[in-house]
């Protein structure tokens, strides 16, 4: 490992086969891996799809040494004017294929009825496994591609960047020396986020003899290497030529989401629900809380657990983490508990309700200019009260189910010394939970909200996914579209703009969180 500032330089476990180097932009992780490669000498085999596809000044790909050695030993098989990792990898694959064909032709090997697959055979097989709707064809000294649903072959240069990157990585990995340390720069580059983990899992399977070192700042990719050792590069001291870094073992005690949160996170971390690609949470909260590094984790339980784990290790990483979860049907006691643990809980039932906050509605209507903001909000308010009145019974029942479930789950975990006492305890839960009493109380409370026109109170307890459409919020605000994405898209567009109404909307959204950091 490269020299570490202010301490002993750790050693990388010999049995480890994955290492992920992460760090904020400017922390020195590129210099760190360059030093690793220099120290490894001939064992280092460097790969970068960006440089392979588009070149780079002074950059030498791991394929270059293989190509130049083959050019010197078999000058008739390779051209001297080919440059770039992608084109050289293709040329090496075709050159080895040609050599194998000639050997079989002139040696007349009758013993081997089924010749072993060449690197080109294996490359094509794996590539078509990863892209099942496409085919790779060999025509003379060329590789061609063909889509199953579109007749007609075309040059591999016309493949998408992602398809070419995978083709390059497969071929290049197969040419890596045995036992090499394969150093991959920005492995997420050109890869589709939804299939990135599966792609690299399969690519790693090609060369189980090699150790793979990834350098990345991509949160999702770092999380996908779950059993990897992680090197967190904090900074670089150019005078001492030493780095401030820590090696985090796979069993460090917190999950891969926490490792990922360290990447580039010089701001406090904010964990949120959603998938990070399509959820409203991942799109909205970075615009509402620009002072945070926002990280999507999926479920509310993951958010809660990750905040706890991250902050338990605050002495180690010197950063703070908060979280946001939907209020859903939690009562005041549950909300207070979460807030005491660093979890922000909005004063609305779910994230969609944020787009119906009074000042948000007014800001969007004012920006559109086609309708008076007062009239727009009055219309939205009227439709919400009407919809709420029709849903009071169903909402009271859903809230009752949640509260009874919470009571039962809490109480069922008792210390009983016999099955008889446990049975008596279970029988008593009905009287403890008292669902009818809870339901009647909630229905009475909800009816009072309707009578009093408690718009904010209704948003706080009303879980109803189609509310934005049923209340015609987009239409009342003067938006041209009226689908379920119209109002969220309008708010996101507003928050990204320099419009004077953006500050009004952002302030209203932040005010919906009583613990806004």
As a percent range, the share of helical residues equals 40-55%
N-C termini distance: 38 Å
Radius of gyration (Å): 30 Å
Morphology: elongated
Strand count: 13
Number of H/I helices: 22
- Largest sheet entry: 6 strands, mixed
What share of residues are in beta strands? 5-15%
The helix/strand class is alpha/beta
| Mean pLDDT over the full residue set | 82
Q: What are the low-pLDDT stretches, counting only 5+ consecutive residues below 50?
A: 253-261
With strands numbered from the N-terminus, the spatial order across the biggest sheet is: 2-6-7-1-8-9
Write a structural description.
The chain has helices at 29-40, 49-54, 62-73, 85-107, 119-130, 161-175, 196-206, 219-224, 256-261, 280-288, 300-312, 314-317, 332-340, 358-368, 373-411, 419-433, 435-452, 455-461, 467-470, 473-476, 486-496, 500-511; strands at residues 18-22, 44-47, 134-139, 142-147, 150-155, 181-185, 211-215, 229-237, 242-248, 269-273, 293-298, 321-324, 343-344. Helix 10 (280-288) runs parallel beside helix 21 (486-496) and helix 15 packs antiparallel against helix 17 (435-452). The protein contains 22 helices and 13 strands. Helices cover 50% and strands 14% of the residues. Strands 2-6-7-1-8-9 form a 6-stranded mixed sheet, with helices on both faces. The two termini are 38 Å apart. The protein is α/β, with parallel strands linked by helices and 517 residues long.
């Amino acid at each position: 490992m490269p020299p570490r500032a202010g301490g002993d330089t750790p050693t990388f476990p010999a049995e480890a086969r994955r290492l992920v180097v992460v760090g904020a932009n400017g922390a020195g992780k590129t210099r760190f891996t360059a030093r690793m490669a220099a120290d490894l000498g001939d064992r280092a085999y460097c790969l970068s799809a960006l440089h392979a596809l588009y070149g780079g000044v002074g950059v030498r790909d791991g394929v270059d040494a293989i190509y130049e050695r083959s050019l010197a030993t078999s000058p008739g098989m390779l051209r001297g004017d080919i440059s770039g990792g992608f084109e050289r990898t293709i040329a090496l694959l075709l050159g080895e294929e040609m050599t194998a064909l000639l050997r079989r032709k002139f040696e007349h090997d009758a013993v081997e009825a089924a010749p072993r697959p060449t690197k080109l055979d294996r490359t094509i097989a794996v590539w078509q496994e990863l892209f099942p709707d496409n085919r790779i064809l060999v025509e003379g000294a060329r590789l061609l591609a063909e889509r199953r649903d579109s007749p007609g072959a075309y040059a591999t240069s016309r493949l998408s960047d992602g398809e070419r990157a995978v083709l390059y990585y497969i071929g290049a990995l197969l040419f890596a020396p045995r036992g090499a340390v394969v150093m991959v720069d920005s492995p997420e580059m050109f890869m589709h986020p939804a299939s990135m983990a599966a792609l690299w899992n399969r690519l790693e399977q090609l060369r189980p003899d090699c150790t793979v070192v990834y350098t990345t700042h991509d949160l999702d990719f770092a999380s996908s290497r779950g059993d990897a050792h992680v090197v967190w590069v904090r900074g670089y001291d150019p005078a001492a030529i030493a780095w401030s870094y820590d090696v985090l073992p796979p069993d460090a005690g917190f999950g891969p989401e926490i490792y990922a949160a360290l990447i580039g996170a010089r701001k406090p971390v904010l964990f949120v629900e959603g998938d990070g690609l399509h959820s409203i949470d991942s799109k909205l909260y970075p615009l509402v809380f620009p002072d945070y590094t926002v990280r999507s984790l999926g479920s509310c339980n993951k958010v809660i657990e990750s905040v706890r784990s991250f902050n338990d290790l605050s002495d180690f990483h010197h950063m703070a983490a908060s979280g946001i979860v939907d209020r859903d049907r939690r009562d005041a006691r549950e909300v207070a508990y979460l807030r005491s643990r660093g979890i922000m809980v909005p004063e609305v039932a779910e994230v969609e309700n944020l787009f119906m906050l009074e000042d948000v509605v007014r800001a969007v209507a004012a920006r559109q200019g086609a309708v008076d903001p007062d009239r727009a909000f009055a219309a939205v308010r009227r439709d919400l009260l009407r919809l709420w009145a029709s849903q009071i019974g169903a909402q009271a029942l859903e809230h009752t189910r949640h509260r009874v479930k919470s009571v039962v789950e809490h109480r069922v975990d008792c210390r009983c010394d016999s099955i008889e006492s446990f049975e008596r305890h279970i029988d008593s839960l009905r009287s403890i939970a008292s669902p009818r009493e809870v339901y009647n109380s909630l229905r009475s409370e909800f009816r009072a909200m309707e009578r009093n026109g408690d718009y904010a109170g209704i948003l706080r307890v009303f879980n109803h996914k189609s509310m934005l459409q049923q209340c015609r919020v987009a239409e009342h605000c003067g938006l041209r579209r009226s689908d379920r994405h119209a109002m969220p898209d309008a708010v996101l567009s507003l928050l990204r703009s320099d419009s004077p109404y953006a500050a009004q909307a952002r302030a209203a959204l932040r005010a919906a969180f009583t613990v806004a950091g």
